[in-house]
Amino acid sequence: MGFRATVLTLYPEMFPGHLSYSLAGKAMERGQWSLDSVQIRDFATDKHRTVDDTPAGGGAGMVLKPDVLARAIDSTCENDARPRLLMSPRGKPLTQERVRELATGQGVIIVCGRFEGVDQRVIDARKLEEISIGDYVLSGGEPAALVVLDTIVRILPGVMGNDLSGLHESFEGGLLEHPHYTRPQEWEGREIPAILTSGNHGAIEKWRHEQAVALTKERRPDLLKD
Ligand code: SAH
Predict the structure, then answer these.
(1) What's the CA-to-centroid distance between 67 and ligand 1, angstroms?
(2) Which residue of 11, 49, 147, 160 sits 20 to 30 Å from the alpha carbon of 22, by its own alpha carbon?
(3) Is 124 assigned to a binding site?
(4) Residue 115 CA: which ligand 1 atom is closest?
(5) 167-225, which class in CATH?
(6) CATH top-level class for 3-155?
(7) 113 annotated binding-site participant
(8) Domain tRNA methyltransferase TRMD/TRM10-type, which positions (predicted)?
(9) 137 is in an annotated binding site
(10) What is the spatial distance between Cα 72 and Cα 58, in angstroms, rounded to a whole number?
């Protein structure tokens, strides 16, 4: 069975979104991965189907109720060993390393927050792993869930046309990737670096590595620390 993703959201119609296109979409059609979205509101019990309430202690906005969210989570993951992720700007920043770990598992359960976020007790009680996609604030977890799933699906075995194309990518080996060129040989007076058309594969590898190191030093010195 393929990689199984379950997304808990107030906007299930946002899924699979862009993941139904291109390589991810084809891989889904082939059954290499699947996505179910669960409407959190279906687990509200009052007649207005309330999912949120005002923050304890006061302040702006609304908070997702723990009882409703917990019922939604429990409906999907009884006897389920898949990691449970909560999209959250307070979470651990997503890394290619964590993506690779997730891609080797059976799947993921992803909770999308909305409003000011979710009640802390459900995070603790259901052991949700908070993951951030960057230091900025989205209006909801759905785009973040699509980002997380995109990063995972593209590295599932057999999904990318050429499985080797992941090898030299940015963050693999702790470096940003070297620059790319393609024909025409000359464009607006700019040439492809001669070494790339030399046919000397050893020299090309060496040049690409040097470029990757230089770029990483200049743009992301933090990556070189480890
Ligand atoms: N009040 C919260 C922000 C809530 S944003 C705070 O200041 O921390 C609403 C929802 O969008 C969040 O619950 C989360 O699910 C999602 N979200 C916002 N920014 C995100 C980010 N950088 N990464 C992942 N999810 C994010």
Answers:
(1) 20
(2) 11
(3) no
(4) 9
(5) mainly alpha
(6) alpha beta
(7) yes
(8) 4-225
(9) yes
(10) 26
